[in-house]
């Protein structure tokens, strides 16, 4: 337990010592998105009946920021440790695979939640979104950040150079998060893209999260919960398998 | 005395390259053991197997009776490894680095021992300095301290003095010697053979993934007690007649086997007949370096 706790705490400290880049910057980015998109679209779009576009946008932006930062935390920490070589100091001690996994993933979830809370805090200065079901909000914040934290871990273990990690991020993570209904309700999409969106687990994260605020979503929150929950479980099992075989960490 | 480290038939390939070709090796408790060999011989790979950083393709390794794979958590508590590559975490200070390292080993309150490590490694005044701000030698000292936070019974140092100033070498060896006196088993790899010769009591030599020598230091030196003749020539070409005696070349000098002083005359005659003149001549008394060159050279032929 002490080993897990130390690694977890070290991972928290790692992003907190540079919180200007790791927390403040993504919050500012999300606020800028909100200013621009709501300015352009507020008058034209009504995503759900009776919900202003700006209010609709806030949970999506908060979720997107959480996901990107949870991914960034595990992936950047691992690739930096691998490239500088200081990962040996974590591979030599008697940390179990589960301790290793949980410490990285939970620290990344914490960063996701801190960024998400920051985005909600600052954007609520413009429009206060409702908060109908706080438990759904919390559940999707945790699970969504968790899925991306695990994906970040896989990417960080797999990538051998920064540009491989950048490719993983630009060609997998960014499209998944942007094509998920952050900026629109997917029911406004053509049928083909509607179908594609339904295959994207990030869509369910954002939809379930939004349901927590407005009590309305494109699909049932239970469906979203099962999709996101099983994605998390599958990725976790896969990653623990990678750690057991020592893939790219223990040669 | 019981066994501190055991390698049984350890084999490791990297692609087509066979880095370890079946190593059997035992280090007993309390020994000061040197693992020698040229670059690429497989020393670091063997140490990585011990630390669980590398998985052997076959064979097994254990530390203090704990298998490094089946019982990896217990095995890792028994051993402290100072890796060869200089590396550090730029986010933290020296003390933070050591507190975290203790935590990874499950130790919560380790301040007294951390202070002692800082003191003994000459790091006390750097405790609150950021790792980034330290010189290479100081970073190396921190790496040694990191390997020792959990007071491991077995301590492995992989070229700890490569590129390091004389002051650190002396501080480090005094401290490691003290740990050895207190009962810790020490395994050392180094390119400075005088260091190994003064400190170690048992020696293994590795070449191209194979163990080519393993003995007590005294016995090893005796069994290779050949003197060497060191020649510098002008022009710089060894006469063909002397080629069979060549053991190695060192700093532009040819080192030739000199089993018997009677051979000296005929050898010099060879040089004269080849029309080559002597720039320098020296008889090298057997030391660990000449033993090393002899062992490495002979197996190649
Ligand atoms: N991860 C690796 N991938 C490929 N080759 C490796 C790897 N690690 C070591 N080697 C090769 O194995 C050989 C032995 O290396 P090493 O154990 O570092 O030797 P030494 O420490 O004795 O200098 C070298 O030829 C090295 O290039
Ligand atoms: Mg080496």
TrEMBL record, chain A:
Topology versus the membrane: Multi-pass membrane protein
Any one GO MF annotation of this record: ABC-type transporter activity
Claim: RNA-binding is one of the keywords in the record: no
UniProt main location, coarse: membrane
InterPro entries documented for this protein: ABC-2_transport_permease, ABC2_TM, ABC2_TM_bact-type, ABC_2_transport
Domain ABC transmembrane type-2 stretches: 17-246
Transmembrane segments: 20-41, 53-71, 101-128, 135-159, 165-184, 219-243
Location of this chain's protein in the cell: Cell inner membrane; Membrane
Stored Pfam families: ABC2_membrane (PF01061)
GO cellular component, one term: ATP-binding cassette (ABC) transporter complex
Keyword Transmembrane belongs to the record: yes
Keywords: Cell membrane, Membrane, Transmembrane, Transmembrane helix, Transport
Superkingdom, taxonomy of origin: Bacteria
Family designation: Belongs to the ABC-2 integral membrane protein family.
Protein name (record): Transport permease protein
Organism encoding this protein: Chitinimonas taiwanensis DSM 18899
TrEMBL record, chain B:
Residue span(s) of domain ABC transporter: 5-233
InterPro entries for the chain: AAA+_ATPase, ABC_transporter-like_ATP-bd, ABC_transporter-like_CS, ABC_transporter_ATP-binding, P-loop_NTPase
Keywords for the protein's UniProt record, in alphabetical order: ATP-binding, Cell membrane, Membrane, Nucleotide-binding, Transport
PROSITE patterns, sorted: ABC_TRANSPORTER_1, ABC_TRANSPORTER_2
GO terms, molecular function: ATP binding; ATP hydrolysis activity
Signal sequence residues: none
SUPFAM superfamilies given in the database record: P-loop containing nucleoside triphosphate hydrolases
Classification via PANTHER family: ABC TRANSPORTER ATP-BINDING PROTEIN
Protein name, per record: ABC-2 type transport system ATP-binding protein
Species name: Chitinimonas taiwanensis DSM 18899
Lineage, top ranks: Bacteria, Pseudomonadati, Pseudomonadota, Betaproteobacteria, Neisseriales
């Amino acid at each position: 337990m002490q080993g897990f706790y130390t690694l977890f705490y070290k991972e928290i400290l790692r992003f907190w010592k540079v919180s200007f880049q790791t927390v403040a910057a993504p919050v500012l980015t999300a606020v800028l998105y909100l200013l621009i998109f709501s300015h352009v679209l507020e008058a034209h779009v009504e995503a759900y009946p009776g919900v202003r576009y700006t209010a609709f946008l806030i949970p999506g932006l908060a979720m997107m920021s959480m996901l990107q930062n949870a991914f960034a935390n595990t992936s950047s920490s691992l690739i930096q440790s691998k490239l500088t070589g200081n990962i040996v100091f974590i591979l030599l001690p008697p940390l179990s695979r589960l301790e290793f996994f949980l410490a990285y993933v939970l620290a990344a979830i914490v960063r996701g939640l801190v960024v998400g809370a920051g985005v909600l805090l600052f954007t609520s200065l413009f429009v206060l979104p409702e908060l109908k079901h706080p438990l759904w909000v919390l559940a999707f914040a945790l699970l969504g950040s968790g899925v991306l934290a695990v994906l970040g871990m896989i990417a960080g273990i797999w990538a051998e150079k920064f540009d491989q990690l950048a490719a993983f991020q630009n060609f997998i993570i960014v499209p998944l998060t942007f094509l998920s209904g952050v900026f629109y309700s997917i029911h406004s999409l053509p049928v083909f893209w509607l179908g594609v969106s339904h295959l994207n687990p990030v869509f369910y994260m954002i939809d379930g999260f939004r349901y927590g605020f407005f009590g309305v979503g494109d699909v049932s929150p239970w469906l979203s919960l099962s999709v996101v929950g099983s994605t998390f479980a599958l990725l976790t099992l896969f990653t623990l398998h990678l750690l057991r075989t020592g893939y790219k960490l223990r040669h | 005395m019981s066994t501190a480290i055991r390698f049984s038939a350890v084999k490791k390939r990297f692609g087509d390259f066979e880095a370890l070709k079946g190593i059997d090796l035992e280090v007993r408790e309390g020994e000061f053991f040197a693992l020698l060999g040229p670059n690429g011989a497989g020393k670091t790979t063997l140490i990585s197997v011990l630390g669980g950083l590398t998985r052997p393709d076959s064979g097994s390794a254990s530390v203090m009776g704990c298998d490094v794979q089946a019982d990896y958590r217990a095995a890792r508590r028994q051993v402290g490894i100072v890796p060869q590559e200089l590396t550090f975490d730029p986010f933290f200070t020296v003390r933070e680095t050591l507190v975290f390292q203790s935590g990874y080993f499950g130790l919560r309150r380790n301040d007294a021992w951390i202070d002692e490590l800082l003191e003994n490694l000459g790091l006390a005044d750097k405790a609150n300095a950021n790792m980034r701000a330290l010189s290479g030698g100081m970073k190396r000292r921190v790496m040694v301290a990191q390997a020792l936070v959990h007071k491991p019974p077995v301590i492995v140092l992989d070229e700890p003095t490569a590129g390091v100033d004389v002051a650190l070498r002396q501080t480090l060896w005094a401290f490691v010697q003290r740990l050895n006196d207190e009962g810790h088993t020490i395994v050392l790899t180094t390119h400075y053979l005088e260091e190994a010769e003064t400190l170690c009591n048992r020696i293994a030599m590795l070449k191209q993934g194979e163990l080519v020598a393993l003995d007590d230091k005294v016995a090893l030196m005796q069994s290779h007690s050949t003197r060497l003749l060191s020649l510098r020539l002008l022009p710089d070409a060894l006469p063909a007649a002397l080629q069979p005696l060549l053991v190695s070349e060192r700093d532009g000098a040819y080192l030739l086997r000199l089993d018997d002083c009677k051979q000296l005359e005929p050898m010099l005659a060879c040089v004269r007949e080849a029309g080559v003149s002597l720039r320098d001549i020296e008889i090298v008394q057997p030391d660990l370096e000449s033993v090393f060159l002899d062992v490495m050279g002979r197996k190649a032929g």
